[in-house]
User: Fold this.
Amino acid sequence: MTPDELYALLPAVHRRRDAQQGGPLRALLTLVAEQAAVVQEDIERLYDNWFIETCDDWVVPYLGDLVGYEILPRIAAALSDDTSRATGLPAAAVPRRDVADTVTHRRRKGTLALLEELASGVAGWPARAVEYHRLLCVTQPVRRYSTEGRDARRRSARGALVDVRRAEVLDRLGGPFDDCAHTVEVPRAGSARRPGRYGIQSVGLHLWRLRTYSVTRAPAYCLDRDRACYTFNVLAIDTPLYTAPVPEPSSGRVADETNVPEPIGRRALAERLYDYYGPGKSLCVWTGPDADGDVVPLDRIVAADLSGWRYRPARGQVAVDPVLGRLALSPGTAPAHGVRVTYHHAFSGDLGGGEYPRPEPVTADAPERYRVGPGEDHTSIADALDRWRAGKRAHGGKAEVIVEITANEVYEDLTDIRLDPGDRLTLRAADGVRPVVRLTGRHGGDRQRALTITGAGRPTARIVLDGLLVTGGSVRVRGGVERLVVRHCTFVPGWLLEERGTPLAPGAPGLDIAHSPVHTEIHHSIVGALTVDGGEDNRVELYDSVVDATRSEATAIGAADGGPAGVLLTARRTTVLGAVHARAVDVLENCLLAGQVSVERRDQGSLRFCWLPKYSRTPPRFHCEPDHSGDPDRVDLRFAATRYGSPDYVRLADDCADAIRRGGANGCEPGALHHLFQPLREDNLRTRLDEFTPAGCDTGLFFVT
Assistant:
């Protein structure tokens, strides 16, 4: 009940006397109604916790216990920790979907399709199960050779000898969709040292750990207008295109190429163009100004090798290279309004901005919102900011505002943001879009620019950047700003990238703070080098982010002159590529510091569950590598890729030492991808496979990506 409804239940005489005395009874009933609402909400929440579909994450293990669901022994203690709940550990350790399907899985125990469902339910990874005994070289008995009946169907399910004239078969050799015959391998599929695939009892579960992320109706980057050469990626870099997975039908069959996030090959695109191309599919191309009727028809798409841009499509055709993420039109036919594309690329997790859902922080008041994009009131970010400033001058009291970008456009008008004392500005992308703020172009000899954020007077202004991709320069904060929050953003390391991803300005700062004591928070973002100048009142907090100086010998966090940054640094679950020079630290926890670390004040703060190079000068360390293992040569930090734009960017290499891969506080990997809990997912999956593997079979995990 609301306070008014509760107050209306009182007799009228009491309400009149209460009004005469200033309303103390009404104030009391307001407090009573608030507490009653809290109790009522808790009762409703308890009812929701009875069901696996609606319960809280911490309740899932208890419901699982009722059906005999066993969790990993070392995880039970971690689930009772409040900090583990905040990082999402319970959802990864005890997957809700797996608990819900426990009874159903036991009824289907031993079936091949169940193994794929386990991988999706337990680890969240798409999978393909393969029975390797069907792919062994077997001499067919002549006396049973026939062209019809059960024997023919049995032979068709077995591997055949390689037909060197079928190139599509050769492309699949050694992969999860290989259907050629192989000789027997002695090692077991589940061997911990050297697993073998092709055994009589071997069953392989091929797993895709990378996720696909869509980019919808975004402008392609024109490299050469005369030759009509484009890249799908607006950063003008080669980006391999991936399949947008189609859910498997509930018929019990195993996955094929369209059901998993597999890179699209040139030959696969040519042979199965209908499966990959079109609106709502893996990729699509628009060359006309109309939003609905300008899709390039299917019969005009040609799969081609555009390396070196030697291929020239015929007039009216559009050549697409899915391996490099390039497209080309016939020379001289580049449309004046540009080309728009939809495609899917791969990455490890929700980091650095994109079309994935980003929860909007809850605010007490609903600030005024200006929307920017096609069909909105404002076509540019600068127009929206000018209207906000005009409204403040005319009416006052409009210190808080949200400028929301609603389309995948490129904005080149934003170079300066000026804030008045007390301003609260949020510049964010709407859910489902990833706008690009380009601070410099590539044509016409444009000089390098910066997005400068300046406050006036005492540092009381606050600004939030949410869901943006900033390229072509750095973000500079100069005076009068009290707080800067960066959420799900990318400040491209090295400012600009060449087509192979090489930065044009290696070591250049992505975020430059000076002349003001700023409290900076960076969440789930990728930024270039961080430069902080000024007094000791600066605070920088990094959470689930990447700070990339593009070179291991460059300074990732420091002052502009190469000295220590005048900052109190806090970092949790962060990967730093480059050296760190800071005045003081509060805590560095679950971090990968791939450069020399030097902290001036070593009597303050601590480092916990981190990897950092030997001979680093830091405050006290706890369970840090390679100190903890005592063998620096064996515990060597290795990434699958360190160049921004690669699908494996900042992912630990598969041959990285277990002391690093499981060196986090809860037995998972430190760094920006800690929130994926990949070692925990792998352990969970292996535990479930022991329970549901078909009798007499040996199952192994093989990671495709």
